[in-house]
DNA sequence: CGCGAAATTGACTCTTCTCAAGAGGGGTGG
DNA sequence: CCACCCCTCTTGAGAAGAGTCAATTTCGCG
């Protein structure tokens, strides 16, 4: 199922001048790179690779080894785990600025696949360890990110364990608003929907049909102003 | 609700000789302390405190600040989060050797309360940072522990999102067996049950009654050989 | 414009929840 | 040491929410 794919058109791995790749990166300020000083940044750029990941392609697969840290520069990813009989649970959505693969492992705990054509920076952990000796903040940042992931997971647990279908769907849209929502000026919030209804249902622990009915309810009460396959306008 | 309580009878914070506290610790090998060299260990012992936590008392509370790392030396803890209307979700159980408070925060994401009279070692993060400069493995260990927590949370998410009541209960007992189970020789596994039925139900996203019915089923099919309020024998 | 996948809606089923009553077990006081 | 009481757990019956199966509609894409 969806092997790791290298779509390298945008990679900067070829030799020569690479000054500026990070300088112009619009997530530089929010990710681990902010811990790099000028020297670390130069080091980073020399081993870091930018990689395009095509929609539906996995960058990590459950059970497969992974030794890289991925920083999502653009696009979005879906994290999932499968039960033996094929039931799929979506354990999270990853957006611009988020990290995947905080720790090298020889058995990844989940699959991460691109929901749209996306762009990531990859850092080998082996190398990151070296950088960390001169920029100790990097490890603190990894610890912090790990905790953020954990807290998100705990919120997800509360959602799945205690919330009704309508509440779950509402919570999902709140998360979406916070992660990728934009405010066009009026009270409304707009957000792109890079995931399918099935993806959302699998995230919320609901069936497709139940999600659909909940969407109808949220539309009726006005929480959702308009929704299409890949876009939503909310009144929060 | 359950403030942080200091039940200090067992604390070693008073001055004088403290040699040996860690040397004789039976979880030394499995926890972060294993990263300490002799010098770090001496440092650690001088600022670390052992603390007894009485049953039902919280060592961390949702929304409250926390700047210590806790290592569970003996006993067990329940992690929980509450919705505004009081619904409680148990997000995890913590046993001997586990960590709590991997990161300092001024708003703890969850509450941790002792399920039985327990014993923890507390390390202030401020101090831990100093130790980490000479023992860099400590931070790696914190990253690793953070990831372990996250992976457990993901398993919990799968459980809540995709499993039936019977499957959830079965999974809980498997977890219990792995965490605190002992094999008395025959194929069976025994484990103490420090949590109530209500705690288990809140962990599994089920009602008390549903859990009770599932237990009856598991007894009938023989997965559970015997179960009382605080002890279980399983056939795995 | 039309095809096909994705999403919605409908009717019915089933698992889990709810409310209620009863049984069991542990601890305290007589 | 026993009995009682209280709290926890179990069991029962009916209701409700979400699941299932199936038909239909919508939307995005060629």
Layout of secondary structure:
Two copies of one chain form a homodimer.
Chain A: H1 38-47, E1 49-53, E2 58-60, E3 68-74, E4 76-82, E5 88-95, E6 99-100, E7 111-114, E8 118-124, H2 125-134, H3 137-162, H4 165-180, E9 188-192, H5 197-204, H6 208-220, E10 224-228, E11 231-235
Antiparallel strand pairs in A: 1-8, 2-7, 3-6, 3-8, 4-5, 4-7, 9-11, 10-11
Helix pairs in contact in A: 1-2, 4-6, 5-6
Chain A binds a DNA duplex (30 and 30 nucleotides) through helix 6.
Protein architecture, described:
The structure is a homodimer of 236-residue chains. Mean pLDDT of chain A is 88; it is low at 1-19. In chain A, strand 10 (224-228) and strand 11 form a beta hairpin. The first copy, chain A, has a 4-stranded antiparallel beta sheet with strand order 1-8-3-6. In chain A, strands 2-7-4-5 form a 4-stranded antiparallel beta sheet. Chain A has a 3-stranded antiparallel beta sheet with strand order 9-11-10. Chain A is built from 6 helices and 11 strands. The first copy, chain A, has 236 residues and is an alpha+beta fold. Chain A folds into 2 domains: 7-161, Jelly Rolls (Sandwich); 164-234, Arc Repressor Mutant, subunit A (Orthogonal Bundle), CATH 1.10.10.10. Helices cover 35% and strands 25% of the residues of chain A. Chain A has helices at 38-47, 125-134, 137-162, 165-180, 197-204, 208-220; strands at residues 49-53, 58-60, 68-74, 76-82, 88-95, 99-100, 111-114, 118-124, 188-192, 224-228, 231-235. Chain A binds chain B through residues 81, 83, 87-91, 102-103, 105, 109-110, 133, 136, 139-140, 142-144, 146-147, 149-151, 153-158, 160-163, 202-205, and chain B through 81, 83, 87-91, 102-103, 105, 109-110, 133, 136, 139-140, 142-144, 146-147, 149-151, 153-158, 160-163, 202-205.
């Amino acid at each position: 199922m969806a092997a790791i794919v290298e779509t390298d058109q945008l990679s900067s791995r070829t030799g020569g001048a690479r000054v500026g790749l990070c300088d112009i990166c619009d997530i530089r300020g929010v990710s681990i790179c902010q811990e790099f000083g000028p020297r670390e940044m130069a080091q980073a750029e020399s081993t870091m690779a930018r990689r395009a990941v095509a929609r539906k392609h996995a960058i990590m697969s459950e059970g497969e080894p992974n030794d890289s840290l991925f920083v999502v520069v653009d696009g979005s990813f879906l994290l999932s785990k499968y039960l033996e009989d094929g039931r799929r649970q979506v354990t999270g959505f990853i957006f611009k600025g988020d990290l995947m693969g905080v720790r090298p492992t020889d058995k990844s705990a989940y699959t991460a696949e691109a929901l749209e054509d996306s762009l990531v920076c990859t850092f080998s952990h082996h190398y990151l360890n070296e950088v960390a000796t001169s920029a100790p903040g990097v490890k603190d940042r990894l610890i912090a990110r790990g905790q953020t992931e954990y807290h998100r997971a705990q919120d997800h647990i509360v959602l799945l364990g205690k919330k009704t279908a309508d509440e779950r769907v509402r919570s999902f849209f709140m998360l979406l608003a916070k992660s990728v929502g934009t405010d066009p000026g009026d009270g409304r919030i707009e957000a792109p929907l890079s995931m399918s209804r099935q993806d959302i249902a699998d995230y919320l622990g609901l069936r497709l049909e139940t999600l659909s009915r909940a969407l109808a309810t949220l539309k009726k009460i006005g929480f959702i102003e308009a929704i299409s396959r890949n876009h939503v306008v909310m009144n929060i």
